[in-house]
Amino acid sequence: MGRGRLWRRAGLLAVLALVLEGCATGGGWLRLRPASPHEQYVAMLERTRRAAVPEVDAWIAEAATALGAPQAVTAPRHLVSSTASTRGRAAAFLVQVPEGRRLALDLRSQVTAPGPLFLDVFAAEDEAPAGQRPPPDSLERVASLGPDALSISVDARRATSYVIRVHPSLEWAGAYVLTVRTQASLPFPVQGLTARAVQSRFGVARDAGRREHEGIDIFAPRGTPVLAVVSGIAQPSSNGLGGTVMWLHEPDAGRTFYYAHLDRQAFTEPRRVVAGDVLGFVGNTGNARTTAPHLHFGLYDDGPRDPLPYVQPDDVVPPLPRLPTLSTQ
After folding, report:
1. Does residue 259 sit within a domain?
2. Which residues constitute the domain of residue 90?
3. Which among 315, 16, 34 has a CA at the least distance from the CA of 153?
4. To the nearest whole number, what is the mean pLDDT of the chain?
5. Residue 18: which pLDDT band, with cuts at 50, 70 and 90?
6. N or C end of the chain: smaller count of CB under 10 Å?
7. 291-307 residue pLDDT tens
8. pTM summary value
9. CA 298, CA 239: separation in Å to the nearest integer?
10. What is the pLDDT of residues 47-86, one digit of tens each?
């Protein structure tokens, strides 16, 4: 039976595979997650006893070897495989993603022999020092490209070291280009504006140094709509510093967003909202009465965080490079 037919037949069973991740603290319950396409493929090889074949043994081993020696890259960047000689060879890339950014990956290929082309993203448990590779045993798989997908993304709640592994299957031959970039992980909170409207940043001194600015100030004409950046529970309120404010709680993620100095709120009772809903309108209430209308936008996630990286524009990538010309012979 040919490799392609074997993969398709065994893959129907492998899709049900689950990987045991360990026991939950205190309860002894096993936590399960779906196997990645790469793990399903390895399971297929083992079930069909092909793992005893030297070529297959080498292919399985190089997947782990690649994670231990990733090439450090910076975003945005295109990573192009060389030639069809990359058949079956794993490549891994290390990229440092700042807090608040979204790691976005696009994989395009030119194929001379069809088969699965695997892409997996691993996160280091602890941030590795600059220029150092994270130990392989500190890596946890956080995302995998689906069989019919071309793009995948992961949000970095904290500054994170990611290892991206591309591993052609034994059947696959060709060339690929992997585009690595970062994007905003949140939409901009003021309608029609971008981060260029930010004039006062996180951490600057306030009240003669007695406190620090726990957010960013976005200047806009009075009455400009301000928008929910996530889906959650919106809670109208008021206080002396912020004046007319809106709190937006994101229960699933444990984050809270703070909209202050509003001219008015869009509603006066708590309600569930979705990202993009209007929460209120730019003003200068509270301690901003002597300044131009603006939105104070804050993010709290185990304390105040700088919201600016979350809403900075997406990386601009250069034009997609041309893939190598491949021979089918």
Report:
1. yes
2. 3-184
3. 315
4. 84
5. very low
6. C
7. 999 999 999 998 999 99
8. 0.82
9. 15
10. 887 767 888 889 999 999 999 999 999 999 999 886 555 5
Residue 189 belongs to a domain? no
CB 181 within 8 A of CB 314: yes
- In a shared domain, residues 177 and 41: yes
Q: To which residue do tokens 């060339």 refer?
A: 175
CA nearest neighbour of 326 among 176, 113, 168, 175:
175
Same domain, 172 and 240: no
Residues 126 and 97 in one domain: yes
Instruction: pLDDT band for 5, please (50, 70, 90 cuts).
Output: very low
Q: Number of H helices and number of E strands within the chain? A: 4, 23
Give the whole-angstrom CA distance, residue 185 versus residue 182: 9
Tell me how far apart the 2 most distant CA atoms of the chain are, in Å. 79
The DSSP bridge partners found for residue 21 are none
Q: State the residue for tokens 């993620």.
A: 253
Q: Which amino acid is it at 270?
A: P
Q: What is the CATH number of the domain that holds 134?
A: 2.60.120.380
CA pair distance 92, 219, nearest whole angstrom:
43
Residue 266 has what DSSP assignment? S
Structure tokens that stand for 151 in this block: 């793009």
pLDDT in tens, 132-180: 788 888 899 999 999 889 999 999 999 999 999 999 999 898 889 999 9
Distances 61 to 64, 90, 169 between C-alpha atoms, Å:
6, 10, 13
Question: Which residues, listed in sequence order, are joined to residue 107 by a DSSP beta bridge?
Answer: 178
What phi and psi, each to the nearest 5 degrees, are found at residue 283?
Answer: -155, -155
CA distance 272 to 185: 21
